[in-house]
Amino acid sequence: MKRVAAGHAGTWLVAGATALCLAAMLGVLALLAGAGLSTFWPSRIVELRETNGTIAIGEIAVATDEVIVLRESERDRAGGGYVRIPRIAIASRTEPDDAFVVALADGRRLFGRDDASIASATARDAAASVAVEETLWPNAIGVVGRTGVFLRHVGRFLTTSTAAPALIGGALPALIGTLTLVLLMSLIVMPFGIATAVYLHERRGWAASIVRGAIANLAGVPSIVYGVLGLGLFVHGLGAGIDRWFFSDRLPVPTFGSGGLLWAALTLALLTLPVVVVSVEEGLARIPPGLRAGSLALGATEGETIWRLLLPAARPALLTGLILAIARAAGAVAPLMLVGVVKLAPALPVDASFPFLHPSRQFMHLGFSVYDAALESPDALRGIPRAYACALLLVGLVVALNLAAILLRNRLRERYRALEG
Amino acid sequence: MLTTSPDNAIPSPPPAGLPADVEVALELCALSLWYGERRALESVSFAVPARRITALIGPSASGKSSLLRCLNRLNDEIADCRVEGTVLVRGNDVYAKGVAVHELRRRVGMVFQKPNPFPLSVYENVAYGPRLLGIRKRRELDECVESALRSAALWDEVAARLDDSALALSLGQQQRLVIARALAVGPEILLMDEPASALDPATTLRFEELLHELAPRYTILLVTHNMQSAARVSDYTAFLNQGRLIEFGETDALLTNPRERLTEDYITGRYV
Q1: For the domain A172-420, what is the CATH superfamily, name and number?
Q2: pTM for the full model?
Q3: Cβ–Cβ contacts within 10 Å for residue A168, how many?
């Protein structure tokens, strides 16, 4: 038997593991992109003529060997237009060029043809009573036209407000809510995390050990527990107190006493505190002790040394902590559901009216939109692709934020490279 | 010339080894130092003459660096370190109650064994100290930085790249930058802990020239275990062994005609 050199086998092992990681990551992105973007692509409208003479017009939702599930006009409510038609009952199947789909502002969609048939007449009647979002003749347009429609749908998803049943509206409020929440969380967690890390780095006694142990335990607490904590401590405790003292004229309508952006950001800050503390402390520990001695020897106090020398030198580690915190915060949905995330917020947490940031407002969040679209949608078959689209947007947002932090960190690393060598 | 034996009681000033007319900048009286239970210095007493270079020689772990770090109280940073005896800077005990340690450290500058420039630009390294002193105006800072760099014989080499990272300089330049940084806060005394040990021979010679240039203005206490270097640069030499001061005197006399057997063994290389 031929013996394989250990180094050779090791190389294959680690390369294989890396490839697997890469494949898993690309797989997730491909799935999200494929499934998410398909919801924006205009599907073709089919007209099925059954053997008993009935005519059904709509788009194919599910097709198996035995049956076709057709999405017909939703006359009463969104998600109410599905019909099962056995394949043996179908006499003919056509894709007429004059078939149209009308998307209504209440999330319903109606199908018809530019003729005088009953279905078409019903569609026109229903469309007359509700605002029309869009009318399309998807069969008549080619690939270029479809791409145009696709891009228009994507643009609308990114730039418009969410409609009542979140089937046709955009995801802008959720995008802004997520971004505002993450930024506010970062502003809160960084000072606290850095201060704690400095304390742990400078004081090595039993007190520091207790704090360090407590923080290690914080990292292991499930995120929903933070939600409960936030609800009890911030919303019902702090928030109710603030309302009693400062907004008593508005009671019993709560101002800060109900879930809101500020409480959600505080809850997430608690959740991400451990990762910030750990990475900043590691960064401080990596700074050569000679720098500290050099600063003290110049007559700097301990505080001046930390503020003017050690923290600036640890900036790459601060950004690493921030990156990890953002990644953890953007993925946490469970705690937010208890402290201020809503399905549909009446107003954005940031707007043009003073004071521009409204910390007491309830807000929308992409992570919650995924959950909402996947499980709470009135139309499950259209909800799932929308969940994918929201997830894709969330991943894109996290990647963009991390990329910005990583670029900044790499620029700083250039300056401090000689230190680490 | 006298020697100090560790069994002596605290000697009364002026301490041994110096002619009476020499001005004293720094004086150690029965200085002892413990790291936990281990005694690193045993009742060391000698006086450092002002505006001269005094070399501190001795084998490894003889307490040279510990002694140096007593003088600007950098040992305060070490948790289980305990100091007894007195250190007088211009007659003031640095271990007295109520001494502002950061003030002391401004008067007693220090240069470390390994060049330790801050990860900042050349300019900001030198301006670090003046900024601590509250100097904010750009022009004042510029003057401080330039004069310190000129004193450290580095100005001509770095004038064009003051904004470059200090870490990009060569080791020899870094060591001179660190000296410029120490000079920028206007110290009277410079403590140097084997400052040339990381430098190559040619750079070392250059560095020694710099010490000569600084000597008329600053009191320099230089730790070295390079005998030739001590002979070339220093006016006075103290020989330390196992935490005890064995001999102190003018460098020429001490190196050519040592009083103590241990000193002779050490400088002739027979030391075990």
Answers
A1: MetI-like (1.10.3720.10)
A2: 0.80
A3: 24
